[in-house]
């Protein structure tokens, strides 16, 4: 199970809306100063995601929850997104090369196959996303933010 912490935005009728921040995986690497991936991450938009997760337990805004998703669903969705355009590209490029015998035709077939594979993945993804096994679940719940109180040493001396 792949786990990630998220912050509750709201909870009503057994559904919690949670806010997940996107973290760059290269921030802890020893060679981050000269890394090209880090530069590309800085160029892109800093995104965050808000998703709905079923929760029988009432939650309050600001509360931390640990979300989990199975590895098989993550691998399945990655294969759908990345492999279907690649397979379409190779199949259609080969087919156009055999049928027409020119590199231009193979290039056009590759373009058509890649776009077709992308559209195929886009069409299948909503149906697959409805599967219960592909949905994130709440694994553990942190304390509500108003339950935990901290005091500093200057507050204790008063």
Automatic annotation (TrEMBL):
Coiled coil: none annotated. The keyword Protein biosynthesis does not apply. The chain crosses the membrane at residues 74-98, 104-121. It comes from the Bacteria. Keywords: Membrane, Transmembrane, Transmembrane helix. NCBIfam families: PRK10862.1 (NF008115). This is Protein RseC. It comes from Pseudocitrobacter corydidari. The lineage of its organism: Bacteria, Pseudomonadati, Pseudomonadota, Gammaproteobacteria, Enterobacterales.
């Amino acid at each position: 199970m792949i786990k990630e912490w998220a912050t509750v935005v709201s909870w009503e009728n057994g559904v919690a809306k949670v806010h997940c921040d996107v973290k760059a995986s290269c921030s802890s690497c020893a060679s981050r100063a000269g890394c090209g991936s880090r530069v590309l991450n800085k160029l892109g938009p800093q995104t965050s995601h808000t998703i709905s997760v079923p929760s029988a337990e009432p939650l309050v805004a600001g509360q931390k929850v640990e979300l989990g998703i199975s590895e098989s669903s993550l691998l399945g969705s990655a294969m759908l997104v990345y492999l279907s355009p690649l397979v379409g590209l190779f199949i259609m490029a080969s087919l156009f090369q055999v049928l027409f015998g020119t590199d231009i035709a193979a290039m056009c077939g590759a373009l058509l196959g890649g776009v077709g594979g992308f559209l195929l993945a886009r069409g299948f993804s909503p149906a697959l996303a409805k599967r219960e096994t592909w949905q994130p679940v709440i694994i553990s719940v942190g304390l509500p933010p108003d339950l935990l109180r901290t005091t500093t040493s200057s507050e204790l001396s008063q």
